[in-house]
Structures are given as C-alpha cells and as structure tokens.
Design a protein that fits this description.
The chain is mainly alpha-helical. The chain has eleven helices and four strands. Among the domains are: about 50 residues; about 120 residues, no CATH class. The strands form two sheets. It has a two-stranded antiparallel ribbon.
C-alpha cells in the first residue's frame, strides 16, 4: 500500500481545524445537558446557559446576575386594575380589594382608582345598571337576589337602589311566570310536590313568597285539569303570610 503523500492532511498537527468556540464548544452531550466551555474571549461559560451564535446573551460563571430594577408601585397598581377590567367591568370596591391583596398601599391604590374614576374606567352606577339588566334577563334573578349581589360587590345602597328601580313589580311577575312555564316542561311528580319545588326555585332567585306562589298557581292551573284542581285550593296570600316576607332573601334595597 502506498504511504501517505507528503504534506497530506492528517487532521492533527499544524493543519488541523481550529477548535470551535462559543455555541459549538457548548454542544449538548448525552441527554441534552450543556457543559462548561471556554469562549473566544477566554472566559469560562456555564454550559447550562443558552448560547447564541453571535455570543450575545451568554452569561458566564464569572459574571454576576443583575437584579431587576424596582418597579414603580403605581405602575404595578395600574397593571393589576387593567387585568381585572379585561375580564369584566368591576366596581371600585372590587378593584380596591384586588390591589390590597397584591400588597399595594392604600395611598397608591386610592390615587390610581381616583384617576380611573375621572376617566370613566370605573363607574359603579353604570356597573349596577348593567348588572341588574344582565342578571335579570340572563338568570331570571329578582330584585332581592340582585340587591344582595350588588352589595357583595361593594355598590352602595343609593346606587344599587337606583339601578333596581328600573325593575318594577310587573316585570318581576312576568319573569317569574316565564321561569315556571319553562321548568314545567321537564318537572315531573304530583301537583303538591311540583308546587313546592317551583316555589322553592323562585325563592332561591329572590322572588317574594307572594309573587312566587301566584306564578306557580297560575302556571299549574293552565297545565292540566288535575293541576288546576290543586291550584284552586291554594290561597296565595295566606300561604305567603305563613311563609313570611324574608323567605326569599334580603330586602331589595341594600343599606349603604
């Protein structure tokens, strides 16, 4: 066999390819882990770091991590409010609670919320009106239940009362009857059991006993002869008095 030509490259010695550096030296081994390597500048780099082809962004063992600059508390508070408002409209009280939970001081929170009031991003009156309309038509809730929900969200009594004023007794009665008619399509059982179940359903939605009982009685009377006979025996006013005015929940006008 002829020997190697003189001067042929062997991959070793003076003509060998220069060692790779940077990302190449930090190649993965085994299960993908990176090992320490020495960069072109001579510094040892942590193999666990992400290497970049141009060397930017590499953090070596000899370079201390930089602590992030402290953020302005008011800026943090605004970001918290915006995230809350992106989900749904909020009352001022709801936003104040969210800021407090995140450790925002009362002074900064009040300043940020005052500014949001000025620009119209917080409007408890508009919130209450929209809440009453949406929850009444969407869930069939009556004034009592709606008043309780507004109170829980920090709406003051006067503001809540104005919003609830748009929901009159006639509208409540019509909604109660519609709820009963819809439920009667699927409910089964003896008239007395159906009566109790439907009255209980309306009570949980905040309807006063008198409204609930009359709605169920009228619906049963229109359903069948048997149900009508049972309904004729019900004295709505007497039953309502026996149940009591507080059976359906809190008073419709919340206190401030």
């Amino acid at each position: 066999m002829a020997g190697r030509r003189r001067g042929a490259r062997t991959g070793r010695g003076w003509d060998a390819a220069p060692p790779r550096s940077g990302a190449a030296n930090g190649r993965r081994r085994g299960g993908g882990a990176r090992f320490p390597s020495r960069g072109e500048d001579g510094r040892i780099r942590d193999g666990a770091d992400e290497f970049h082809p141009d060397g930017e962004g590499d953090v070596g063992w000899d370079e201390p991590a930089r602590a992030p600059a402290p953020r302005d508390e008011a800026e943090v508070a605004r970001e918290i409010c915006l995230r809350q408002l992106a989900v749904r409209p909020r009352t001022r009280a709801e936003l104040a609670t969210a800021l407090s939970r995140k450790g925002i001081s009362a002074t900064v929170a009040e300043s940020v919320l005052d500014r949001y009031d000025e620009v119209g991003m917080i409007d408890d009156a508009a919130f209450a009106r929209a809440w009453v309309t949406s929850r009444h038509h969407g869930r069939g809730l009556a004034r009592r239940a709606l008043a309780n929900e507004l109170r829980q969200r920090g709406v003051d009594g006067e503001t809540a009362g104005e919003a609830l004023g748009a929901l009159d007794e006639e509208t409540e009665a019509e909604t109660a009857r519609a709820l009963v008619d819809r439920k009667l399509r699927t409910v089964r059982g003896e008239p007395d059991a159906v009566f109790r179940r439907l009255v209980g359903m309306l009570a949980r939605k905040g309807y006063p006993p008198g409204v609930a009982i009359r709605a169920v009685k009228d619906a049963l009377a229109a359903q069948s002869a048997e149900a009508a006979e049972f309904a004729d025996q019900i004295d709505a006013d007497a039953v309502a008095d026996a149940i009591g005015p507080d059976a359906a929940g809190p008073d419709p006008t919340p206190s401030s």
